[in-house]
Amino acid sequence: MEELLLIVAKCLRLPRDSVGMDLTMASTGKWDSLAHMDLILAIEERYQIQLDGDEIADLTSVSAIARLLRGKGLLEQ
Length: 77
Prior knowledge:
77 residues; Non-ribosomal Peptide Synthetase Peptidyl Carrier Protein, Chain A; mainly alpha
C-alpha cells in the first residue's frame, strides 16, 4: 500500500503525508485530467497492467485504485 501512496503523491506532486485512502479527485485541485493520466500511466507501468477506459474513468480516488488493484490480485488486503 505504501508504494501506491508514494506513486499517487509523486504523480500529483503532493507531500506523501497528505496522501491517504480518502484522497479523491474532487478533494484536491492537483488531481486534474493531466495528473490523472500521469497517475494511470505510472500505475500501469508499475503493476504491468493495461487499464481499459471504464477502469480509468472509475479511478477517481485512492481507495478506488486500491480496490481495483486488489481485485486484480496486485495489492495485498
